[in-house]
Specification:
heterodimer; A: alpha+beta; Ubiquitin-like (UB roll); DNA polymerase, domain 1; elongated; B: alpha+beta; Uridine Diphospho-n-acetylenolpyruvylglucosamine Reductase, domain 2
């Protein structure tokens, strides 16, 4: 990042990420939330690719709303509840840095479905897509094909061709219905 | 005081008084791209994200008043979408779900990009803009507010707090051309509003001029060719003529996204198609 041209203003602020408060002590005013979670908080799950909101690989939840972390000014996210891929399953977390959340590392149903359906190839887009799919299915438990496609339209995947990702979403939707409401009709009878 | 996150409008004015050169940050979807690529180094930022009073809407007399903090996602569904279908359609074409959850109406208005998706709609619907500062509130019509590409009449101490849209009996739509459905900056966009209250047609064009434009000749002509009692167009040739007149009103340029020639053509086709959908 081209932060070298000029003096660096040091700022201190507190972010709430995955249910924990983190003090950011040596940030630069213009750092994105993506940069801060990856480089300062040791949470590398959100990926950095385009830095302009095009690819969705940095998707996180901010106050329960799916956003691109690269387009959030980290210092302006004070007071917001931020969830990264590491915080999705309760107590889980792929951990690296000293301040990262430690947990069991258990996978969510969406993560499991991505593995079982072969929706992961190189894996770079996967955290962003998992965030987008959780966001979709929490809002719309039985999405139509069009709703699924619209929900993941901001997440680019260059490996899979999306077919297996759509299959994984379908598998989760069916799985959640089967667990929650066994009498619900099968997916083929859903409106599409 | 590099980054301030006030929770009230009064707090915003206070922060701006303390740091008059601070950048007002709305959804960040334009601003952060410039910062990430090192094109902008803000001396200070006043973020509007936590000012909840800006994220509401109300009916005030014969106007719908939309708070500037409403996101594209807020505009694209629910009660606002059913009252303002063209604005909802335009909001739905913006970016992706992630962008629509962050980007705001006020940000689109204050940034005043030639390709801003809500702007052709606001221009077609004769919107006016509320500008608030410590010195008071003023409301300005769109024609006065939008001065050029990324240029508005907003003073640095002012905040775009709301957009006012007249309540009318209308049919309206927004159509846009881009290279794909999602994550695309408009190559050409058109809002057509058939206003049954005032028996007129209003047409806003986007990405074909430095600011969103109207097409007054096309609007005046087509109003004479609508059967207002039947809410129909008796002569089907009207649509094509309307489209070419709208194309003639465009002031497009060649750039990295498209050519002036294609933009003029596309804006005419979109206008024709929108009118066919509406009457």
């Amino acid at each position: 990042m081209a932060y070298e041209n000029g003096a660096r203003e040091n700022v201190t602020y507190r972010l709430r990420v995955n249910g924990r408060d983190h003090d950011v002590a040596e940030g630069w005013l213009g750092e994105s939330l993506l940069y801060v979670v990856r480089e300062r908080l040791g949470l590398p799950g959100a990926k950095n690719a385009c830095d302009q909101g095009e690819c969705g690989s940095c998707s996180v939840l901010m106050d329960a709303s799916l956003v691109c972390a690269c387009l959030v000014l980290a210092a302006s996210a004070v007071g917001a509840e931020i969830t990264t891929i590491e915080g999705l399953s309760t107590g889980a977390g792929a951990t690296r840095g000293p301040s990262a959340t430690q947990g069991s590392g258990a996978l969510t149903d969406v993560q499991t479905a991505f593995l079982e359906e072969g929706a992961v190839q190189c894996g770079f887009c996967t955290p962003g897509l998992i965030m987008a799919v959780h966001d979709l299915l929490d809002r719309l438990p039985s999405p139509t094909d069009l709703e699924v496609r619209e929900a993941i339209s901001g997440n680019l995947c260059r490996c899979t061709g999306y077919g297996r990702i759509l299959a994984a979403v379908e598998a989760v939707a069916v799985g959640r219905r089967t667990v929650g409401e066994p009498d619900k009709p099968a997916p083929s009878t859903r409106p599409s | 005081m590099p980054v301030v996150v006030p929770t009230t409008l009064a707090g915003v004015f206070e922060a701006l008084a303390a740091d008059p050169h601070a950048h007002l940050l709305a959804g960040g979807t334009d601003f952060m791209v410039e910062v990430n690529f090192g094109h902008r180094r803000p001396p200070g930022v006043v973020a509007l994200r936590a000012v909840s009073e800006l994220r509401s809407w109300r009916i005030e007399g014969d106007q719908i008043v939309l708070g500037s903090g409403l996101t594209y996602a807020d505009l694209a569904s629910g009660a606002i979408a059913s009252r303002l279908p063209a604005l909802a359609a335009a909001a739905r074409t913006v970016g992706s779900p992630q962008i629509r959850n962050a980007g705001t109406l006020g940000g689109n208005v204050a940034t005043a990009s030639p390709a801003g998706d809500t702007l052709p709609v606001l221009v077609a619907l004769d919107a006016s803009i509320d500008l608030a500062s410590a010195a008071g509130l003023r409301t300005m019509g769109w024609a006065e507010f939008f001065m050029g590409a990324k240029k508005t009449a907003r003073r640095p101490d002012e905040v775009v707090t709301a957009v006012r849209i007249p309540v009318i009996d209308s049919r309206e739509d927004y159509l846009k051309v881009g290279t794909r459905n999602a994550m695309v900056i408009s190559v050409a966009g058109v809002c057509v509003c058939v206003d049954f209250t005032n028996r007129r047609v209003q047409c806003g064009l986007g990405s074909v001029g430095p600011v969103a434009l109207r097409a007054p000749e096309a609007e005046g002509w087509v109003a004479e060719h609508i059967d207002w009692n039947a809410r129909a167009v008796p002569d089907p040739r009207t649509y094509e003529t309307f489209g070419s007149m709208v194309g003639a009103a465009a002031r497009p340029i060649d750039d990295h996204r498209s050519t002036a020639q294609y933009r003029r053509h596309a804006v005419g086709v979109l206008a024709q198609r929108a009118l066919m959908r509406l009457v």
